[in-house]
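Hi Y.,

Following your request, here is the sequence exactly as I used it, all 106 residues.
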Amino acid sequence: MIMRAQLAAEKSVDSLSWMKRLSSIWSTENIKIARRVIVSVVGVTVLLIGVALLVLPGPAFIVIPIGLAILATEYTWARRWLKKVRRMASNVVSSQKSPVSKDSGV
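Below is the corresponding structure, written out as C-alpha cells. Let me know if you'd prefer a different format.
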C-alpha cells in the first residue's frame, strides 16, 4: 500500500515536471520565432509564385503585393517595397483615368 502511494506521488511529480518542460518550450519567445518562420516561409512562397507568374499566365500583379503584404507583417524592408508597389499601382491607375487626347484628327 505504501509503495502505491509513493508511485502515485512520483507520477504526479513527473507530470508536473513534464508540464514545466512543455511550458518552457512554448515560451513567448519561442512562439514569436515560430510565427516569424511560418510567416517568412508562406510570404516568400507567395512572392516567388508571383514572380513566376510574371512569365507564366496568371495574375502576377495581384499575387506579388499579397506576398509582400504577408512579409510586411514581420519585416520592414517588405513594408517599404509594399509602399513602392502601392505608389506605382496608384500612378498607373491615375494615368488611366486621365481623359484621352482629342487630337486624333478624326
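The mean pLDDT is 81.

Thanks again,
Q.
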